[in-house]
Specification:
12 strands; alpha/beta; 319 residues; 5-stranded parallel beta sheet
Length: 319
Amino acid sequence: MKISLLEPLGVPERVIREMSAKLTKLGHEFVYYDTKTTDPKELAERSKDSDIVMIANNPYPNEVVEAAEKLKMLAVAFTGIDHVGLAACKKKSVAVCNCAGYSNETVAELTVGLAVGVLRHARQADEAARTGKTAAGLTGREICGRTVGIVGTGRIGVRAAQLFGAFGASLLGFARHESEAARASGIRFVGLEKLLQNSDIVSLHLPLTAETRKMFGKKQFDQMKPGAIFLNCARGAIVDNGALAEALNTGRIAGAGVDVFDMEPPIPQDYPLLHAKNILLTPHVAFASEESMLRRAKIEFDNVEAYLAGKPQNVCKLS
């Protein structure tokens, strides 16, 4: 079979060559593109005659899936698959396999890092140190003794809860499906409104689905506890980011840490969150660490090998 990796995976090329060696030894053709492209025509050209296509978080729209006549399996080196043309995959019976779990630790750690950064005014403090100012007006707050609300208690949400718990926080949780793993981390499940009303820190860990799109808007920010902060290292489109900017600028909530947006960076200069008060932004890097990139690449190639062996794994259900 022809297997095409259409973009870099955030690891050295030697790692790609080492991991792909098993595929070529089995007689398969492996093609690697070391640059990204979002041009559908170029993606279609790179996918030409491929039985298996490997991507990461690069968009792979329906029109490209439809153009890839031989495509049987799409390996996605990412947890979410909302950037993939799932309708076309379902129509053509293309198996979509993801790499869930590779970034659990990395995302959870940045979530806590953003919380510390917002509570301790890290951005403003950095600016003060660089411009000859003092610590005046930069007195921060601790995580210890505060209540953290975890919205979405999958693996990343649970790991974030464990880290917040290590700081001495109390934990509330909201999820469609409550789990024993979440309870074991110290989470007490409540309704979403109660969580928002009682949490000093609200941390979002939901997947992007039709049900969760724009789930957080003005109503939810109005329900949050005065002085609370909001964290989003999940998906930008779950949040009405205009409403978040308004909640920050009016002082309805005290701060926010955001890693994800309605689009992939670069973010246009007129984007509301770029001009909001008391917000710490990162350009969709929560998933990216040296360790997570290696884990991701290994899972990606393992998924391909499993499919070729007739034992597909990490197969996503296409609704």
